[in-house]
Amino acid sequence: MSAPGEALDILRRSARLALSPGLRPWVILPVLANALLFGTAYWWLGSALTGWVSALLSGWALEGWLAFLNPVISLLAGLLQLLVWLLLLALMASTFTYVVQLVAAPFMGFLASATDQREHARLGLTAPPDEGLAAMTWRTVKRELRKTWYWLWRALLLLILVGILSLIPGLNLIAPVIWFLWSGWMLGVQYIDYGADNRLVPFSETLARLRRKRALVTSFGSLVLGLTMLPLINLVIMPIAVIGGTLLWLEHGGGE
Questions:
Q1: Any idea where the domains of the chain sit in the sequence?
Q2: Are 61 and 74 in contact (CB under 8 A)?
Q3: Which of 117, 121, 170, 230 has the least C-beta neighbours within 10 A?
Q4: Spatial distance between the Cα atoms of 216 and 5, rounded to a whole number of angstroms
Q5: In 3-state terms, what secondary structure has residue 78?
Q6: pLDDT tens-place string over residues 172-188
Q7: Phi then psi for 194, rounded to 5 degrees?
Q8: Residue 222 near residue 180, CB atoms below 8 Å
Q9: For residue 211, with 0-12 CB atoms within 10 Å meaning exposed, 13-18 middle and 19 or more buried, which class applies?
Q10: For 45-48, which contacts have Cβ atoms below 8 Å and span 24 or more sequence positions?
Q11: pTM of the model as a whole
């Protein structure tokens, strides 16, 4: 099976596992937290931005023989506000996820652990380490901060590179592709690492193993990234991706 096909199959199996009784509670909690945080932030920012646009355009009214254009201006103002809502949705779909991941890191760790407990015997692997609630919470938060630092400075450097390429005719066509593939790789690492961290594998070793499966990891992360950009689906894809990342780790990384 090709890497994209295998990544799609893992996500399909993960969606089915998310509905199982043993995993369902750990799926519902982050979905509710995600919906609450995303909805509140989206409504607040959208209202503020559209209010600012409305105030900026409120004094624009033509007089005299050009007055017939005023309805057109009002229509354009409404379309501009709609565009603000849509652009904000797209922006938050790609950036808000990182904030939610940091807040929901303990939930994601518990979900990865529950997935591992359910699936390790099927794969002939030893049981994952048993640790207390407080220890797991502290460990997952530290690991999330470690991953945030890993992608943050790389994202800034790549953003500069993509910005330069976008100014060069011809090369500007590949700039979005580079950014998308890199984002796919990073999201793949993000979600697969929950399973690795659950097995107490150091982050540096996790990266070394995942680089040997770069096509599969990037395909998995790119599929998740695409689904993250879809309204409503972006509220439920995170726990499904954690389950999928844990499966991918157990099947392709944890058994090495």
A1: 3-251
A2: no
A3: 170
A4: 9
A5: helix
A6: 778 888 888 888 898 89
A7: -60, -40
A8: yes
A9: exposed
A10: 45/88, 45/92, 46/84, 46/85, 46/88
A11: 0.73
Buried b (16+ CB within 10 A) or exposed e, 128-152: beeeeeeebeebbeebbeebeebbe
CB atoms within 10 A of CB 99: 14
Tokens of 231: 């309204």
Helix (H) or strand (E) holding 251: helix 233-252
H helices present in 120-213, as ranges: 133-165, 175-198, 203-211
Q: How far apart are CA 8 and CA 170, in angstroms?
A: 32
Torsion angle of alpha carbons 7, 35, 99, 141, nearest 10°? -80
Tokens of 211: 């680089």
Q: What is the pLDDT, as a whole number, of residue 104? A: 66
